[in-house]
Structures are given as C-alpha cells and as structure tokens.
C-alpha cells in the first residue's frame, strides 16, 4: 500500500459513511472525493488503495491506514484536515466539481442553460454557468456560493 505522503500528491479522498457533509465541502473545494452512505469492508479496502481514507472510526482508520477525525462538526473537521494536509493552495479549483456525484463540471452549453435555469440567473451569469454531465445539474455563481466562499475564508482556506 502507498504511504500517506505518496497518496497525498494526487489528493483523492475516500470518506466513510458518516462523513457526507464533509464530502460535500471537499467537493466544493474541488477535491476528488468518493463517498457512499454504505460500504462493504472489502470495498473500502479496495478504494483506499489509491485514495486517502478519512474516517471518524478509530478501528477503521487503523485497519485502512486512514486519517482519523475527532470533531463532530463540519468546521472542526475541515480545520483538522487543513492541519493534517495541505488544503490551502487550490482556490482556483473551487466549484469545479459536482457536489452530488463528484464529477468534474463542464461549461454549460448556453442554449441548454438558457432553457434550464431561471432567466435572471442566465442573464447575470451567461458565461459562467457550469453543468454536471451525470446529474444534469447546472451550477452558477450566486448568493449561495458567496456564503460558501465566506465560510471557507473564515476557516482560513
Ligand atoms: Zn453530478
């Protein structure tokens, strides 16, 4: 098995079934983050071969050489991760991934976007609308995103 520092280079994560909220936030920050609400142990073992396993379960973290988080809230968990890994230098990849399925977002086709998002959103964001080819969900900068950016900045990202 690759050691932690080797695996860090690619920064691909595998989150245990308790960490759905953290998965969402890592995807917001653009990190390749695998998450399911249920796993079989051999499945976790397989996936942890080329991903950094993050868990709140002490036994599992030992078994799969993962990173053990202590905090129960999202802010604390992000702080812990920031401390243990270098998550600070990549704000250029924020909002580049689907928060639901982890797929890399693509630039949305303008005609398609125009038909699918509210008119004011289209007018204000025409060239910045992105699209998940798997979920068929559209993403654009807006109030919601401003709040997320503020939260990440508050946490020193
Ligand atoms: Zn998606």
Describe the structure.
Helices cover 42% and strands 13% of the residues. The chain contains 8 helices and 7 strands. Helix 2 links the parallel strand 1 and strand 2. The chain has 2 domains: 90 residues, Rossmann fold, CATH 3.40.50; 49 residues, no CATH class. The mean pLDDT is 91. The two termini are 30 Å apart. It is globular, with a radius of gyration of 17 Å. By secondary structure, it is an alpha/beta fold. A 4-stranded parallel beta sheet has the order 2-1-3-4. A 3-stranded antiparallel beta sheet has the order 5-6-7, with no helix packed on it. Bound molecules: zinc ion (ZN).
How is the topology of this model organized?
Blueprint: H1 4-10, E1 12-15, H2 20-28, E2 32-35, H3 41-47, E3 52-55, H4 58-63, E4 67-68, H5 74-84, E5 106-107, H6 110-116, H7 119-125, E6 130-131, E7 138-139, H8 143-154
Parallel strand pairs: 1-2, 1-3, 3-4
Antiparallel strand pairs: 5-6, 6-7
Bound molecules: zinc ion (ZN).
Residues 98, 100-101, 103, 132, 134-135, 137 line the site of zinc ion (ZN).
